[in-house]
Structures are given as C-alpha cells and as structure tokens.
Amino acid sequence: MEDMVKVYVNEKEERHYKKGVTLLEISNDFKDDYKTSIVVAKIDNELFELNVKVDVDCNITFFDMTSADGRRVYIRSLTFVLNMAIMELHKECKLMVYHSIDKGLYCEIKTQNGDFLSERELDKIEERMEEIIASNFVFEKITLTKKEAIAKFAENKTLKKIKLFKYRNATQVNLYKLDWLYDYYYGYMVPSTGYLQKFKLTDKAPGFVLNDPINCDDECKLKIEDSTKLFNVFMESAKWAEILGVNTVADLNDTISRGEIGELILISEAIQEKKIGIIADMIQKRESKVGVVLIAGPSSSGKTTFSKRLSIQLKADGYNPHAICLDDYFIDREHTPLDENGKPDFEALGALDTDLFNQNVNDLLSGKEVDMPSFNFKKGQREYIGNIMKLKDNDILVIEGIHGLNPKLTQNIANEKKFKIYVSALTQINLDEHNRIPTTDNRLLRRIVRDNNFRGYSAARTIDMWSQVRKGEEKNIFPYQEEADIMFNSAMVYEIAVLKQYAAPLLYNIDETMPQYAEAKRLLKFLDYILGIDNDRIPANSLVREFIGGSCFE
C-alpha cells in the first residue's frame, strides 16, 4: 500500500505503519521489551531522535538508557534541565560540567565572585529540576543562523559557546529550546522532560555529581565506589588547565589561531615530565625498598610510553630497571578460561599463571637466578629460550599490564616491595561549559589512530571492537584503580587537535551503509569544532607519539 511503510524492528520483527509515523509512536509497541524507557533510535545505521517521522521502508533499532547511546541522550537532557534550574534560581551563576566521577558527571556552579553554592542550595536546585520534569516540557530543536545563535548566547552571557561557534564553518546551528531557555548540545535529546524520571545531585566539594538512573536503585540510592584518588587527579588536571588558560576547545582554538600552540605544547610536555620525575622520586624515597613497579590502565592510556619514560627517570635516580611482560605468563592456550559466550577470555586474570609469576618475582627479589618464561603466540604455548635474569642491588622490576593493580596478581609478594601506578588519559578539556569530551572518546580516538598506524586496522574495525574493550576494562581495570599508590594523567591539553588530523580522514571512510556510521558521525561532529595542528612540534618522547608515530621509543 502506497500510504504504508514496512519496518524491521531490531533486525527481526516486521511491522507496517502509516507513512509519517514517528519513531516515538513505533517505540510504544516495543517498550515492554526494554529494561528502561526507549530514548533514541537508529534508522538503518544513523541515529535519530524519537520525534523523527518515518516515510520509507527501513530497519529500526531502539535504545534504552542501558545502552551507551541511550545513556548519552539521557544525561545530556538531564544536564539541560539542570542548567535551566540553576538559571532560574541563580541568574548570575554559571554551570560548568567537567568529567565523569562516582557514576555520574562532576559539575560546579560558580558565582560572580568565584565562590561555590552551598549544599542547601543544591537541594533547592534538585527540587526545581523535579518540577521541570513534572511539567513535561518538550525539547524543541530550533535551527538558527550562526549569527542568531551567537546573539542568543550573548543574552545568557555564555561566552564559551560564543567563542566555540566562532571557529565553526557551518552557517546554521541547531539549538534546543526548553520552555524559555535556548542552549546548544552536540547530540540528541529525549522527547520531553517527562522521560527524566530519576536523577540525584550529590554534594562533592567544591562541586557536586549529577547521577543518572542507571546507577540508582528503585529509591535512587547511589551505588558509588570510593574514587578519592581519581577525583584528586581530575582536580589537579583542571587546575593546570586553568593555569594554562585552556579548559575548553574554544580556548584551545584561540591558542592555535594566535600562533601560540608551540609554547602550549612545550609547557604541557614539561608538566608531564615533571610529574613522571616526581613519581620516580617517590619510589626512591619509600621507607622500605621498592622492588616491583606495577603499571596498569585502560586501553590507549599510554602505558607503554609512560613505563619507558618512568624507567629513564628511575635510571636518573640510580636504578637499573628491568621490564617483565605479563603476556609471557599466559597459560597454554588450550587451558584459557572461557567467557560467557564460550570464547577464550585472554583478558581474564585466570589466563595468566599467577603462581609462577609470584614465584619468579619473589625469587628475583631474593637475589636468585631465574629462567624467565616466554610465550610463543604462534604455538599458544609457554617456552624457555634461555632468558636468564638475576637482579643486583640497584635493579628494579617494571611490570605493565591490565591486571597490575589487581591484588590477586601479586598476592604472594610483600606489599612493601610493590609500588602501584594507575595510568589513564583523563581529558581535562571540554567543548564548552555544558558539552564535555568524555575520557572514553579521547582514548577511542587514540586507539583508532594507533590501530591504523601500527596494525593496519580500519576505523570501522576499531569502533567495532571498542565495546568489548570497554567491557574488559569495567571488569578487570576500573575496579582496582583506587589500589594505586599514585595516579598519572596521560592526557595532553593539546592532543585532540593533533589526533583530529589523523582520525578524521579515517572516520570519513565509514559510510552510511556501515553499522559503525552513527559512532563515526558522532565523533566527526565534535572534531569539526577543533582546529587541527601538525605534529612537527611534538617531541619524540611525547606520549602522543605512541599513537601518531615517530616515537623515540619505537
């Protein structure tokens, strides 16, 4: 029938609807299949809001808040409501959204004199948010010229957004209107505020955390783990970004356009080198002699370059570092534990011979000579090829691997002999006041570039693997990050402008017929706001070189 469309929902169920039916109307027929409310959908391989009309035959995939796309849409919409409540209650205050922490987003509300609002005021903001949600206001998308959008932000004195649009080539801008308030977000919204049924504002001085429903139980009691060390690293990074005058993409673009990026690179690298030197000094000054340095962190955090730069600093302190590769302690492949899908789980701690590892390390620390194992990846078996190791007085072991902070890996090694380091790229630069660049996105861009440069992988292949990589991190790395003696932030304030030059062309190779298209489009959208810079000023020992190439450690 000409006035009907045929859709396949979630790649399995065929349905027929009248042309012009909205995704929201279709989603109502499938809401019982999901754990939470459906908030966004894909038509074929492209992401759309639920108010979009369907006029042609297509495939539709719905996403609720338990999915990565769905959670982004939910928390983004919730952030808009938060900003609206603050502007209504405290007209002269400004909301700043910074980074993920404690299962939510860390935010600050600053007054004109730079002070922060009290916890009591936070309760009032939460109450006003609940009122806005109960009003079920529609998130209305408005298309304006760039000039008109800038005028809107001038009214609200959101200067970072004005600066952000200054560098964008597009002549038109999509804003969102919620009742009386206009704002810009790079990404989609839920249909209306009534979708935002659960949230929590939790005091975390000097700011607070905005928690979404995925991390709340039925009474919205937060499931929060201790993150004191991670929070302190974020705050230290934010402090340096403030000192450098570069805490948003708009600030970075200004620095590039003024021709001052060379100095910013040098200062950023100097700060990082100084931090690595401080960590080496901490190891040297430990009351009990450290014998083993354990380094762990998520994918593309720069662990390899960090361990090599730390080894150089340890040499400067009089140590003789020796690297041990945990991969050499894989059990024979035929005995590898299986995951929930029945496939070999090489990232599980059980894939390593931890008993042998502990014995070898303890023997080395006691001065014994050890025949070190080597894993033959072609045969899938452990071998001994005459790699004999014996430590002298000033020797120290440096061990890098995903399980480095898991107490079970080194359970038989005395705690006073160990020094644990957590490394991650904790992005300290956001698009503007309300649009953050997630740490995960920064690492994904790093990995896309590195995989292409050194493994010949396409961006599509890397994106395809990313969810499994993240799943492994959630299981094997993040639960142990607070076990670290020290945390090191490997993110550089300027690096996103370098990664853009490499990642964008790779992402453009993903076309709309490919399942990775929606993710590529999302990444390209925020990269479009960033001015690119060449790599010729980046030092050969920079952590960034681990991903773009040209490292002196290769």
Number of domains: 3
Helix count equals 15
Strand order of the largest sheet: 2-1-7-4-5
Helix content: 25-40%
Structure in a nutshell:
This protein is α/β, with parallel strands linked by helices and 554 residues long. The protein has helices at residues 23-27, 68-89, 119-135, 146-156, 159-166, 228-244, 249-257, 261-285, 303-316, 354-365, 439-455, 459-476, 495-508, 517-527, 545-548; strands at residues 4-9, 13-18, 21-22, 38-43, 46-48, 53-54, 58-64, 94-101, 104-110, 139-145, 172-178, 181-183, 200-204, 207-211, 292-296, 320-325, 370-376, 381-389, 395-400, 418-424, 486-489. The protein folds into 3 domains: 4-64, Beta-grasp domain (Ubiquitin-like (UB roll), Roll); 69-215, Threonyl-trna Synthetase, Chain A, domain 2 (Threonyl-tRNA Synthetase, Chain A, domain 2, 2-Layer Sandwich); 232-323 and 397-548, no CATH class.
Structure description:
The protein has 554 residues and is α/β, with parallel strands linked by helices. The chain is built from 15 helices and 21 strands. The protein has helices spanning 23-27, 68-89, 119-135, 146-156, 159-166, 228-244, 249-257, 261-285, 303-316, 354-365, 439-455, 459-476, 495-508, 517-527, 545-548; strands at residues 4-9, 13-18, 21-22, 38-43, 46-48, 53-54, 58-64, 94-101, 104-110, 139-145, 172-178, 181-183, 200-204, 207-211, 292-296, 320-325, 370-376, 381-389, 395-400, 418-424, 486-489. The strands form 6 sheets. Strands 2-1-7-4-5 form a 5-stranded mixed β-sheet. It has a 5-stranded parallel β-sheet with strand order 16-19-15-20-21. The termini are far apart. Residues 216-223 have low confidence and may be disordered.
